[in-house]
Amino acid sequence: MRYDNITEGRFISRPNRFIAQVSINGTHETVHVKNTGRCRELLVPDGKVYLSGPYPPPRKTAYDLVAVEKVTEKGNVLINMDSQAPNKAAEEWLLTGELFGNDAQVRREYTWGDSRFDLFITTGERRIFMEVKGVTLEKQGIAMFPDAPTVRGVKHIRELIRAVDCGYEAYLLFVIQMKGITGFTPDTATHPEFASALSDAVNAGVRVLAYDCSVTPDSMTIDAPVRVMTEKFLKST
To answer: Which of 61, 80, 99 is the last residue of a domain?
Structure first.
C-alpha cells in the first residue's frame, strides 16, 4: 500500500492518543496520529516522523502521522505506525496469490453472525476468516503484541475459535510493520489474557502467522515470514 504525498517532520509531543504536535520545517503543526496505541518507544522528542498530506479543509488536521524512524543500537529502523495499513497491505498481498493462490477472492469487513472479520477469503471450496493485527512494538529484535491491553483483540480471537468450531478455516495474521525482526510473541506482561487466548486458538486449529514488511516513508508491503515463538505462550492441553 502506498501514500500519495509524504512530508518529513520532527515529533514534539502527543497531547492525547489522537493527535500529536510536530515540527514541519520549523512550523508547529497539530497532526492526526493514525494509531491509538501507546507507541511510547516510537514517539520520542525530536524523533523523525513521516506524515501524509496536506489535506484540505474541512479536516481539522492537515496531516496524518504514518511512520517513524526509530533509533536503535543496530541502526535506525523505519516503522509504519498507521493502524489501517496492515489490512490494506494484507489484502494486496493475498490478491497477488500469496498463501491461498491466484484464484482467491478477498472481501474486507465481512459480517458473520454477530462477528465482523477483517478478511473473508474464498478459493474453491475453502472458506477462510482472517483477523489482521498490526505490530509496531519491538524489543531486542522480537516483535510483540499488544503494546496495551486489548479486550477487543481477545474477543476477535474467541470469534476465530468459534468459526473453526463451525467448520471454517481461520487465520490470525500479525503484520509486523518493519524489517529486522527475528521472531514474534505476544507481550504476556502487558496482557496475559491475550496470550492465553492465543494459546487456546492454536490448540483449537486457528493458524497463527507473522510476516514482516518492507517499509519506506510512502509505502508498506508485506514481505517475509517471521517465526511465531509458540514456546513463549503455548499451553499444553
So the answer is: 80
pTM of this prediction? 0.95
DSSP 150: -
**Which of helix, strand or coil describes residue 125?**
coil
Q: Hey, which residues does 76 pair with through a beta bridge? A: 71
DSSP strands (E only) in the chain: 6-16, 19-24, 27-33, 48-52, 64-72, 75-80, 105-112, 115-123, 126-135, 137-139, 142-145, 169-176, 183-186, 207-216, 219-225
- The sign one gets for the Cα dihedral 179, 183, 189, 191 is positive
Whether 103 and 209 share a structural domain: yes
Domain that holds residue 219: 85-232
Alpha helices in the chain (DSSP H): 85-95, 151-165, 192-204
In a domain, 237, yes or no: no
* Maximum Cα interatomic distance, the chain, rounded to a whole number of Å: 58
pLDDT given at position 236: 58
- Taking the C-alpha atoms of residue 174 and residue 40, their distance in angstroms, rounded to an integer, is 20
Which residue bears the cell 496482557? Answer: 191
* Torsions phi, psi for 233 (to 5 deg): -145, -15
The CATH number that applies at residue 70 is: 2.40.50.580
Examine the domain organization and report whether 70 and 127 are in the same domain: no
Same domain? For 126 and 222 the reply is yes
pLDDT in tens, 117-171: 999 999 999 999 999 999 999 999 999 999 989 999 999 999 999 999 999 999 9
Count of structural domains within the chain: 2
